Amino acid sequence: MSMSENLDAAKLKVRDLRLSFGDKEVLKGISMDIPEKEIVALIGPSGCGKSTLLRAINRMHDLVPIARVSGEIFLDGKNIYDKELDVVDIRRRIGMVFQKPNPFPKSIAENVAYGLKIAGGTSGKNLQDVIKTSLEGAALWDEVKDSLDKSGLALSGGQQQRLCIARAIAVKPEIILMDEPTSALDPISANKVEKLMLELKKDYTIIVVTHNMQQAQRVADRTAFMYLGEVIEYRPTRELFESPIHDLTKNYISGDFG
Ligand SMILES: Nc1ncnc2c1ncn2[C@@H]1O[C@H](COP(=O)(O)OP(=O)(O)OP(=O)(O)O)[C@@H](O)[C@H]1O
Ligand SMILES: [Mg+2]
Q: Most exposed residue of 34, 105, 128, 185, measured as fewest CB within 10 angstroms of its CB?
């Protein structure tokens, strides 16, 4: 399948998304298509709006009184900001993994089962199965299978991040948003999470924010360079890094500014 055919079938379409905090406009009309089962990296200098964009895709600003959003984000053709859509359902379909691993002060098993319990339903044997497959999916099962009752907080940072990924995939989302998922990890753990992302891509669509240019090139099919609330350049990763069109992109990826 060619890249453009892929885009026609975009899983997520962002259209003229604007977001302000008070009178400060932080996203200034973002439009981009995220193809299904690809990894898209968001890069750009600190404060350019990467996390804000990621959070907007999960409707996390609903609870921020000063946040104003306009534009559309279509998930399978339906605008997630449409009043008729249930935000709980949207967050089940679009999961999020944060920079700092944030397991709950509960057992490993309970951490993974958490979203399922909220979503209601699963119990007993079925629950045990989901816990196992989610931990397997997050490449953590072998390390924790004999200590599922142990606190999630007792794991190492890298294990905690994979636990959070297991928790995110347990509810079978369609999209996983990751905000600098490896920046708090040592290189070995970071490498495990990167490998895991490539594995997860078979089943999920992933949007990842990263400050690590090598990481973007290793994992992402496409990369978007953001600057001051705009997407300056969004192209297949190799093209963006090998022949950036805009000087801003060129300067950023060559490390000419922070
Ligand atoms: N809840 C909020 N209230 C007010 N301003 C906010 C809020 N969240 C983010 N901002 C502002 O929005 C701008 C973009 O922030 P954002 O966190 O999206 O940047 P970023 O690209 O993720 O940066 P970094 O690489 O440092 O994580 C910043 O100026 C920030 O101060
Ligand atoms: Mg950020």
A: 105
Distance in Å, CA 45 to ligand 1 centroid: 11
In one-letter notation, the amino acid at residue 141 is W
| Ligand 1 atom with the shortest distance to the CA of 226 | 21
Tell the residue number behind the tokens 């709006």, with chain if given: 49
Which protein residue has the closest C-alpha to ligand 1 atom 18? 49
24-44 tens-digit pLDDT:
999 999 999 999 999 999 999
For residues 71 and 79, what is the distance between their CA atoms, to the nearest angstrom?
A: 9
Percent of the chain with pLDDT over 70: 93
Assess whether the C-beta atom of 52 lies below 6 angstroms from ligand 1.
yes
More confident residue, 151 or 9: 151
d(CA 211, CA 258): 10
- 5: enclosing H helix or E strand: helix 3-8
How many angstroms is it from 46 CA to the middle of ligand 2? Answer: 7
**Atom 4, ligand 1: which residue's CA is nearest?**
21
Beta sheet of 12-21, edge-to-edge order: 24-34, 12-21, 67-75, 78-79
Ordered by where they begin, the domains of the chain are 3-253 (3.40.50.300)
